[in-house]
Specification:
About 45% of the residues lie in helices and about 5% in strands. By secondary structure, the chain is mostly helical.
Length: about 140
């Protein structure tokens, strides 16, 4: 059996540089989301989704990265390269570190969503650009 990568909608969106809402829209158009934002029987049957119990909260459902990647690509979305992903995070965290009266979040709050595998590369680029901010590694949930 092939290895499957199960992702949240946010994680799936990060692969394509889109929001979880854009992912939801594409999944809905494919008939894979019900009106409550939960996977449909068609999504389960296609192997696109996994429910974590019968009362799966929409944000708690897991999506098969490979199956959903194929769907998103057929709908015109293109995966973001690792380098581009790092550059996006560097630009965001650098701007957040500089601050703005119009922004209520901190760089630390935004960095909570930074994928762990990008932390070292993002921090290296922040340093190269003269930014003193450094993202912290998140503790494992296990």
């Amino acid at each position: 059996m092939a290895h499957r990568t199960w992702l949240s909608l946010s994680e799936l969106g990060q692969l394509f540089g889109i929001s979880s809402r854009h992912c939801e829209r594409a999944l809905d158009q494919a008939g894979w989301l019900d009106r409550h934002g939960r996977p449909t029987p068609a999504a389960i049957e296609a192997g696109a989704a996994s429910l974590q119990g019968p009362q799966c909260h929409p944000r708690g459902c897991r999506w098969n990265g490979e199956v959903c990647r194929d769907l998103l690509m057929t709908r015109g979305y293109k995966p973001v390269s690792r380098d581009q992903h790092v550059k996006q995070w560097v630009a965001l965290l650098e701007a957040m570190n500089e601050g703005s009266a119009a922004i209520n979040a901190t760089a630390d709050q935004m960095a909570e969503d930074l994928p762990a595998e990008l932390v070292d590369d993002v921090n290296a680029q922040l340093s190269q650009r003269g930014c003193t901010y450094q993202a912290r590694r998140r503790a494992s949930a296990c």
